[in-house]
Structures are given as C-alpha cells and as structure tokens.
Amino acid sequence: MPIVKLPYNKKTVEVEIDNKNFAAVLEPEQFNCETGLTEEKIVEKSLDNPIDSPKLEKLVKGKNNMVIISSDHTRPLPSKITMPILLRRIRRANSDIDIKILIATGFHRATTRQELIDKFGSEIVENENIVVHDSRDRNKLVKIASFSSGWDLEINKVAAETELLIAEGLIKSHFFAGFSGGRKSILPGISSAKTIMSNHCAEFIASPYARTGNLRNNPVHEDMLRAAEKAKLAFILNVVTDKNRKIINAFAGDCKLAHERGCKFVKKLSEVKKVEADIVISTNGGYPLDQNIYQSVKGMVAAEATCRKGGVIIMVAACNDGHGGQAFYDNLANVKTPEEYLKKVSNVSRRDTTPDQWESQMLARILSEHTVILVTDMCDPEIIENIHMLHTYTVKEALNKAYDILGKDAKVTVIPDGAGVIVG
C-alpha cells in the first residue's frame, strides 16, 4: 500500500492509498540535483559569470544609490543566503553606496517585521534600510510609462528614483505567468494595484497561453517584460531550489536572458507527464506557499491538469492565514455557483479589472469542472465552504469523501508539490 508524504505548513502529513486505487505520484525524478557545490558557491559562481551583462560590481561603481528588490513572505526565496552575498559584493565595489531593500509584495498584504527576520535574519533587518511595497498607497507610487494597449505602468517611487535597480528572486513554475522570477519583481512585485489588475485581466487569464511553464505568446508574461524594461531593471540574481528548499542553481545577469536560461532549467527539472485520474491529491509545497486559500489555487491548477472532468481534487494546505484576500473571497462567496462568476467575469474589460479577480477566475474555472476538498485543521471551515469547496480535517477523511462521490474503485494520482511542477 503506497504511503506518500505531503508537505503541510512546516511539517509533513502522510496519505495511504490502496493498491487498487493508486495511479501515480507525479514528482520529477531529477529534482534532487547534486552539484558538488555549496549553496553559497552556486550563487557566487553565477555572479562571477553573469549572462549578457556586466558584473554587478561594475554596475554599482560610481553610483550614489541603488535598490535591491526582494520577494515577500509568500515566496520561499532563501534570502539568508543570497542577500548577504549581494550586499558584500556591492559594498566591496562601492563602500559608500546607499542601498535600499524593497520588498515586492505585489497585491499581497504587508510583510511583517517577524516575517522579514525569518526571511533575512535579524542582522539585515536591524541594519539595512528595508521598504515594504504597498500597491495601494498612491503617495508612494509614480507613473513611468503608458502603453498603447491602454494601461499605465505605475511603480514604487523608491524604485523609480534610484540610480540602479536590481532584483533577487526565485524561479518556479507559475500557473498563469509561466514562471516566477525575473520580470515579476517589477510587475506585479512593485507595481500599483491599478497596474497589477490591468496585467491580470480576465482576457489574459483566459488565454490558452497563460499556463504553467509557458512563456511563448503568453500575454501576462509579455506585459511583465515590457514593465521590467521600462522600469530599467538592470540586473537579476534568480535561484532555483530543490524540494528541500536548497539552492541547486543560480542565474545572474540580464533580466530577460538570465531569466529565460533559468526557466529552461526549471522546465527540464520540473516537468512530469500527467497520469489522468478520478481523484488528484495536491499541495502547495507547504510553508510559506500554503498560508492561505488564495495562494493554494496554484496547487489546484497542477491537479486540474491531470484530473478528469467531473473528478475530485483534494488540496492539502494549511491556510492558517485564511482566505488570503477579501475581494478574492467575496467574488466567489457572493455568487450561487462558480459558473455564475465565470460568466460575470468574462464581460469585465481590462480597465475594469477588480481586486483579486484573476485568482477568483482561476478557482471558479477549476470548481466548474471538479469538486474540490480542502484539507486543513488551521482554517475556518465556513470560509472554505462559502466559496464552493468542501472541507475535511485530514487527508484520510477527504479520500473517503471522494470515494463516496466517485466510487470505491476511483483512481488516485498524488502531486506532493503542486506549486513546483509542470504537468503536461
């Protein structure tokens, strides 16, 4: 009887599946990639050999000030390793430069001080100038470009006014931008709510090219590239981590080309062939990505790719931070069915995109074709049920409920890290 370990919050839970029901575990075989180098050496090597760019040390020379964009509390970027290396190399080349670290919260809530300490360590939090982006604070935003497609690029003033803008990030598959990292540090990272909503419009989300692991003809990605160019993102350090959150590769240099190189690596590493099943169990890879329902839609999208129409998706995610967005919650809680919301959102223009509409749209799409059971003992069941999902406290309970719906012979596929794979 197969037993599969699933990341949940900061621990793991186990699921036992009868042999007659077991279909597959979708987990890349190459995900543990031995390099023979320490994590620090991998990062240093990438910075020593930037892709289509001068070295970082050359870029900072002669500059009075600069900004380093870093991801927020929802991204497992190992900044305790990357940021000290960046700061040391920058100050070794230019000891007088003024450095600000800008936290790319995008449309998320503000990162707390404790979350900053968890991310960077207390020394950096206590000694560095850290600015937490707020996409809704109009006083801290500035318009830097307008595009013919009818949207304005508004970004954080701190980034717009600096002499040199760089970013650190993590490359993983992303459920509608194709991949995280690179240009996402700008849009949505440090953009205004208005700009983010324009990029995440219903038309783009509905595009067949706005899918996990795809950049080609992806309208969401293409807008993000334009934003990064206009914001003058001069240099990136993007890392790739394994399932244990250890750095296994790093890509530094030009925002577009270094990122593309990293995406190719991640795609090769993360692709799994779908094994269609009646029931698919997925996760969001545990903490910090499974803190809320909003983020957990990512793991559901992976399950959607291999779950038959009419099947059951069991999503194992702590969601200890609740729904993750009031608008996201309200969008679905205020309709009778997911299909009603899909019909409603299809008529919303780019300029009229509302907060968290995109995430609601993605979840509604999944719910319109699948039953979703959310497994958690850290979230109010009423929140889950109000947005058209079922709730259980354990995976075993969820499996039994799924068998009741589909029959005792239903086939089960398991995706231990739905946020980290590309199912094709």
UniProtKB/TrEMBL annotation:
Domain of life where this protein originates: Bacteria
Domain Lactate racemase C-terminal: 272-423
Pfam families: Lar_N, LarA_C
Domain LarA-like N-terminal: residue ranges: 8-213
Name used for this protein in its record: Nickel-dependent lactate racemase
Organism: Clostridium lapidicellarium
Gene this protein is translated from: larA
